[in-house]
Amino acid sequence: MVDVSTQSRTVPVPGGELELSWAAATDTGRRREVNQDAVFAAFPLFVVADGMGGHVGGEIASASTIERLSALADSGTVTPKTIEKALARAVKDIAAHPEATDDGTGTTVTGVFLDTSGDAPHWVTLNIGDSRVYLVRDGAIVQITTDHSVVQELVAAGRLSPEEAENHPYGNVITRAVGPSEGVTPDYVRLDVADGDRFVICSDGLTKELTDYGIRHFLDENPDPADAVTAMLDAALENGGRDNITVIVLDVGHPQGAGRSDDSERGPDDDAGSSPADD
Question: Which of 115, 56, 127, 122 has the alpha carbon at shortest distance from 87?
């Protein structure tokens, strides 16, 4: 059984402090021999990568991407520009690896980081692929990221209903990835900071087995991040565990003087896809 523990940190921000607590876990699942997911969860960056391609190609792609991003977090400077430089380096790493020659080799990368460079702190989500960031705020769960997948494009075009999309044969086909043959730019969404927010960052191994309602249920039942991660992981395995499963739960507590920004800032119901890189 995966050992999951909650970590916490008090973060000084303009006007006060944030109390952050989080937990993360990854599991091979019940149908796969190798775990091609990778995860990094440490302030200020929380990211999941879901690799694909060949016997070890996906594992190489996700590990290379997380390695570059974790080094970026360790440096303390996480911005859209530094993220894109790190991803460009990961693309070169993947291309140079002798076992990552498969054209299908690549990885999703999805997550959130805290931007404290301005007058008020903000969360920024990043996304390439079909791993997801969810936000629970004021009792409602919202998917912040938009999947880069064939199925999502069909849903957006009105050719599939969300219910039909759940079991579509092209459900695993993504339209954007970090891979050896091209550089890609993440979609970004900028969010205000609010007391009581809970983020879930996960690979599609979780969302194949749990609905949004199910995710919210286990969050409601488990105030501690480690307990919530463990409960969702156990439920996903019980429901079939058809893919590798990776989950991060990140809680935001008691911002003092760092509450929600004015109405000009983006909230969880705003459209995805804008970049704050030039802010």
Answer: 127
**Segment 130-179, tens digit of pLDDT:** 999 999 999 999 999 999 877 777 767 777 766 666 666 556 677 778 87
User: What pTM, to 2 d.p., does this model score?
Assistant: 0.87
Q: Which of 249, 279, 272 is nearest to 5 (CA)?
A: 249
**Residues 225 and 21 sit within 8 Å (Cβ to Cβ):** yes
Q: Are strands 132-137 and 140-143 parallel, antiparallel or unpaired?
A: antiparallel
- The token pair that represents 200 in the structure block: 């879930």
